[in-house]
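Service request form, structural biology core

Requester: graduate student, group of Dr. S.
Request type: structure prediction, single chain
Budget code: on file
Notes: please return the result as structure tokens.

Sequence provided:
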Amino acid sequence: MSENTVFACPHCGAKNRVPTDKFSHKPNCGSCHQSLNVGEPSELNHQSLQKFISNNEPLVVIDFWASWCQPCLMMAPNFYHAAKKLPTVRFGKIQTDRHEQAGAEHCIRSLPTLVAFKNGHEMDRLTGLRSASDIIHWVKSLI
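Core staff response, request fulfilled:
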């Protein structure tokens, strides 16, 4: 029998119980029927960010980035690769030049910044351009 993990929908914030053996099947939200983005980063906005942080059972890693930030753009494929390698962790991205309030609320002072949350509370943060292996190693140290 498969173990269930509670994943928040990045679109509507609804909590979904997903069996771990179904992660590779690209599960959809039971409420809004959109993809739960298991194994890939979810694009978030200011409204969806807090629900995504609070309603996910596993560790949540948020990439705070900006479109004008060259290191942010260079790190994006690394962040995506880390999400693929760690499907039991929830990865999200928020564009701080479009959602300035989200960056301010989380005291983001430099970009890119990765912030890890567990049960809605910040655990750790990592600033600057990082390789996929750096991100994976950091996340695994927090699990």
